[in-house]
Amino acid sequence: MNTGTIYDVIIVGGSYAGLSAAMALGRSLRKVIIIDSGLPCNRQTPHSHNFITQDGKTPKEISELALDQVLNYDTVTSIKDLALRATEINGSFKIETASGSEYSGRKLIFATGIKDLMPAIKGFSDCWGITAIHCPYCHGYEFKHQRTGIMANGERGFHLASLVKNLTDELTIFTNGNNDFIDVQTLQLKSNNIQVNDKKIIELVHKKGTIQKVVFDEGSSQNLDALYASIPFEQHCPIPQQLGCELDDMGYLSVDPFQQTSLKGVFACGDSTTRLRSVANSVNSGNIAGAMANKELAEEEFLIPTL
Ligand SMILES: Cc1cc2nc3c(=O)[nH]c(=O)nc-3n(C[C@H](O)[C@H](O)[C@H](O)COP(=O)(O)OP(=O)(O)OC[C@H]3O[C@@H](n4cnc5c(N)ncnc54)[C@H](O)[C@@H]3O)c2cc1C
């Protein structure tokens, strides 16, 4: 189905970044459609922290309030659907969705986030966002002074260790099979009373996502309350790459400081563009993307006098 409407901006992804972009655009009287498939990365976490005014709310409470406020602007529409393809036609864009709909827009904003790739450890995905956590700022306070692990290695593990050490003295790094720390790092970890365990983890024993212990391949185990994990990811949505948007060498969409991708008329914001992963940061970059898409439209429409 093609509605025939030409939107000023199509936003793909309607979580924190996408809704923030939509608010800037709605307040600028832009005709916007948000297409969202409803799978934000933090959906399993019971409480979201470190976003001022919304500390401790569920992820859904925050996004529902945001959607409610965004839809107060009557030029903004939101639909639940999965964007499948995008085509550029003479500087405008067409999006086709899983339900068979087509939408045309002058600008595109991708706020599609990233997908965390779960390691092959029994129980890990059940604990993700509950006691298997990614960020000390989002969840560290809730596990202060508790038995804490960090499943990471090398520079990343070392960096996390220095942050988490401030929150608990009961800290072990699990390198999960191989140890990439250089000698000076090993010494520094030891001086800070941080254990390094090289055994391969095969299971997180848990009750409804609350970790009880990590189990190693040779049969031993260690009791634990929380496990920070640095795990790989992929772009949640492949469309920006299919359109020709460049990725950086870490796998994020390349954007300039104004959230412009490498493709004219296409902006991106939120987790898909940065390793600084938080609700606050996604709202910030979404706000910039919305404003910049509006700026481009405004400049294109601003009449040149005929002399
Ligand atoms: C487990 C966990 C817990 C976290 N806890 C916190 C916390 O406590 N505090 C904090 O500040 N941050 C937290 N974060 C980080 C925070 O959740 C992210 O930074 C934030 O959700 C990113 O927002 P986003 O809008 O970029 O992407 P997301 O929230 O991931 O949303 C992307 C949206 O795009 C949609 N989408 C993707 N592809 C398509 C497509 N093709 N068509 C239509 N829709 C599509 C998805 O369905 C989704 O709704 C947590 C992250 C994780 C993984």
TrEMBL record:
<feature type="domain" description="FAD/NAD(P)-binding">
    <location>
        <begin position="7"/>
        <end position="286"/>
    </location>
</feature>
<protein>
    <submittedName>
        <fullName>NAD(P)/FAD-dependent oxidoreductase</fullName>
    </submittedName>
</protein>
<keyword id="KW-0560">Oxidoreductase</keyword>
<dbReference type="InterPro" id="IPR050097">
    <property type="entry name" value="Ferredoxin-NADP_redctase_2"/>
</dbReference>
<dbReference type="InterPro" id="IPR036188">
    <property type="entry name" value="FAD/NAD-bd_sf"/>
</dbReference>
<keyword id="KW-0285">Flavoprotein</keyword>
<dbReference type="InterPro" id="IPR023753">
    <property type="entry name" value="FAD/NAD-binding_dom"/>
</dbReference>
<dbReference type="GO" id="GO:0016491">
    <property type="term" value="F:oxidoreductase activity"/>
</dbReference>
<dbReference type="Pfam" id="PF07992">
    <property type="entry name" value="Pyr_redox_2"/>
</dbReference>
